[in-house]
Amino acid sequence: MASATHLLTDELDIVIPTIRNLDFLEMWRPFLQPYHLIIVQDGDPSKTIKVPDGFDYELYNRNDINRILGPRSSCISFKDSACRCFGYMVSKKKYIFTIDDDCFVAQDPAGKPVNALEQHIKNLLSPSTPFFFNTLYDPYRDGADFVRGYPFSLREGVPTAVSHGLWLNIPDYDAPTQLVKPLERNTRFVDAVLTIPKGTLFPMCGMNLGFDRDLIGPAMYFGLMGDGQPIGRYDDMWAGWCIKVICDHLGLGVKTGLPYIYHSKASNPFVNLRKEYKGIFWQEEIIPFFQAAVLPKDCTTVQACYVELSKQVKEKLGKVDPYFDKLAEAMVTWIEAWDELNPTGPGAKLANGKAN
Amino acid sequence: MASATHLLTDELDIVIPTIRNLDFLEMWRPFLQPYHLIIVQDGDPSKTIKVPDGFDYELYNRNDINRILGPRSSCISFKDSACRCFGYMVSKKKYIFTIDDDCFVAQDPAGKPVNALEQHIKNLLSPSTPFFFNTLYDPYRDGADFVRGYPFSLREGVPTAVSHGLWLNIPDYDAPTQLVKPLERNTRFVDAVLTIPKGTLFPMCGMNLGFDRDLIGPAMYFGLMGDGQPIGRYDDMWAGWCIKVICDHLGLGVKTGLPYIYHSKASNPFVNLRKEYKGIFWQEEIIPFFQAAVLPKDCTTVQACYVELSKQVKEKLGKVDPYFDKLAEAMVTWIEAWDELNPTGPGAKLANGKAN
Questions:
Q1: Would you call B177 helix, strand, or coil by DSSP?
Q2: What gap in Å lies between CA A340 and CA A348, rounded to an integer?
Q3: What part of A 264-303 touches B (C-beta under 8 Å)?
Q4: A159 found inside a domain
Q5: By the CB < 8 Å criterion, does A171 face chain B?
Q6: N or C: which end of chain B has fewer CB within 10 A?
Q7: Distance between CA atoms of A339 and B5, rounded to whole angstroms?
């Protein structure tokens, strides 16, 4: 697997929203330096991000996004780390690893630094098992297998589209939980990777996330957050609900568990509460919506699925708040922009047909 | 929680199929001696099982089963550890912990002996979360909680009916996997408990299993296995598929993960292959059957659900093999026997009405 990791240097981009903390790159240098970085700057374009020597990178600020996407740049959030999804769109690689700049290298229980990227690659290169639960977790891992009673017809698994990693130290809590439990730290290293079963939704966190851009990239849209929008901190959640419904429909797998990163600092719970509070209401309606969402059989590409989902968002969630009408339109704009920048992508033609 | 464990000495029975190895009870003495044991002897009734001094127990052999159940004793397997379910039926306690006699006390990564029973009790006394996946696993555990994006309306959880524990050392593999990987040992201690999501089936192993008899007992039938039957080693699997469908219907939770036991010896893979080979074919049809099974809304008790399921088994699986007709009838007999021995059990009246 070490050699596979090495090979993927040509097939994987690291996407990072604004880097405010340059220690971040120094700490990750042993693991990330062989890879190409795409940095998407979320605030004032006149500010300059200094990237330490030795890293191969491209950096996009708001002016770049506006220039490249023109009017379609409206689908990319401003002054919010949701803008990172622009990096997914401009990448030309098969795999993406995205990480926040307050995530440092974790240690395993033996004190060894965790190579998070290597574990994401392992997760993405081995199949998923969404149709039946394996009680010994990932059956493809060394020392594990399918247990007694696991149907043999399901043991080939399905391709893995998403690898969701976790966080030691500061857990990814919402503002109310942060406020109630300001001192809670995650110290439990759970040595497992598992497939989230078909039909089950999960809260996807964008802090430490790998995915196969060819398989699911066009659905990895982080929505409208931040400047001018009524909510924040739901960018990754929105993407997670969309990708899970589409992966379930297309027979693709989503894994969660290892690798851990060390999440160094909690964001301000008061600021978070302001960003989140509408989401806290809305998620009570959004989740049943996604749980009930059914995609038609003729949606055979990610783009087609995503455009179909945007219609259902408009129809069903538009009643909840006009924000969802705007979001549904932005979902279509995102697909148009994706296909413009990735014209030879699989199924782009069909999806364009659907979108128009 | 330690005090809760203590209290449950009056509310929990330990059910053990034939004890061939008396080291077993000596090893478990510190943990099991405060509890009442129900031993169900699976072979020749003239053989005597010597239980070491100090244990409070009752022992049933085949003659006892025949005497107590009369003609309905046909639903209890003979010469197979599936007979253990007779112990579930004669217990009068709220909780059951069942364990095999080749399961020893495991050690956690710090070398401390694992009190498996205490962990099962913790699992059973805290709620489950089947409707949405929590990426930090059991949200009710110390040091954990619901993560950002988890709907607040689902944070009360639902009552936990089943706690499925795992095994270090010899993994619970089927015969083909045992044959292919004779040396594989499970050495990975995964420090997690998680709810198996609604709509997802899993392979439930009876080696190390706790459940709430009041909530799910009547569905914990281990089927027809062993003497005179065409298959073996599917007793716990059968029960697992049935209980999961019924728990999903009734809004009850099923957890898997901790506690570990140390599984000391692999059973003979050649013998296992003979017992399993029909099951290996049949499970390819049984699992889609259970995945598609829908119980009517008016089935509001476990008994009513189970009798309804028996009808569906006869109708849909009877075509696969006449064995399933016999099994469907035994499922009804089991419920009749359960209700006879547990006449005041919740919903017994309704279920009897359905069964006749």
A1: helix
A2: 9
A3: 276, 280, 283-284, 287
A4: yes
A5: yes
A6: C
A7: 59
- Residue A10: HSE in the Cβ half-sphere, 13 Å Cα cutoff: 3
**Is there a contact between B121 and B95 (Cβ–Cβ < 8 Å)?**
yes
CA torsion, points B18, B21, B26, B29, in degrees to nearest 10? -20
Distance from CA of B141 to the nearest CA of A (A): 11
Q: Are A235 and A80 in contact (CB under 8 A)?
A: yes
Q: Which two tokens stand for residue A223?
A: 């929505």
Which backbone phi and psi does A105 adopt, to 5 degrees? -75, 125
The domain containing residue B198 runs over which residues? 9-344
**Phi, psi values for residue B293, rounded to 5°:** -65, 135
Task: List all residues of chain A from 212 to 241 with a beta carbon under 8 Å from chain B.
Answer: 233-234, 237, 240
Residue A74: which of A276, A234, A228 has the closest Cα? A228
pLDDT digits (tens, 9 = 90+) for B70-112: 999 999 999 999 999 999 999 999 999 999 999 999 999 999 9
Written as one letter, the residue type at A270 is: F
CB contact under 8 A, A135 and B188: no
Q: What is the pLDDT of residue B355?
A: 33
- Report the C-alpha gap between B89 and A189 in whole angstroms: 40
Q: How far apart are the first and last CA of chain A?
A: 43
As a whole number, the mean pLDDT across chain B is 94
Q: A201 — contact with chain B (CB < 8 Å)? A: yes
Report pLDDT for A4.
Answer: 52
Exposed, middle or buried: residue B319 (CB in 10 Å: 0-12, 13-18, 19+)?
exposed
Residue A199 CB neighbours (<10 A): 15
Comparing CB atoms, the residue among B152, B166, B181 nearest residue A280 is B152
Is the ipTM above a cut-off of 0.85? Answer: yes
Q: Is residue A4 part of a domain?
A: no
- Six-digit token pair at A99? 């990480």
Across the interface, of A148, A192, A202, the residue whose CB is closest to B174 is: A148
Rounded to 10 degrees, the C-alpha dihedral A344/A347/A348/A353 comes to: 140
Q: Which residues of A274-286 are buried (b: 16+ CB within 10 A; e: fewer)?
A: ebbebbbebbeeb
CB pair distance less than 8 Å for B145 and A283: no
- Run means of pLDDT, 10 residues per run, chain A, 356 residues: 65 94 92 96 90 96 97 96 97 97 96 97 98 98 97 98 98 96 97 98 98 98 96 97 98 98 93 94 97 98 98 98 98 98 64 36
Give domain status of residue B3, yes or no.
Answer: no
Q: Other C-beta atoms within 10 Å of A320: how many?
A: 16
Q: Select from B216, B91, B89 the least CA-distant residue to B161.
A: B216
Nearest residue to A171 via CA among A232, A240, A260:
A260
Number of domains, chain B: 1
The span from the CA of A112 to the CA of A106, in Å, is 8
Q: Do B197 and A197 touch (CB under 8 A)?
A: yes
Q: How many CA atoms lie within 13 A of A203 on its CB side?
A: 25
Alpha-carbon dihedral angle through residues B136, B141, B144, B146, given to the nearest 10 degrees:
70
Tell me whether residue A2 is in a domain.
no
* Terminal-to-terminal C-alpha distance of chain B: 43
Strands A253-263 and A103-105: antiparallel
Whole-number Å distance between alpha carbons of A179 and A273: 9
**Cβ–Cβ contact B150 with A under 8 A:** yes
As a 3-state breakdown, chain B gives helix, strand, coil percent values, each rounded to 5, of 45, 15, 40
Instruction: For residue A125, give the CATH number of its domain.
Output: 3.90.550
A92 contact B CB<8A? no
Cα–Cα nearest to B255, from B300, B190, B210, B207: B210
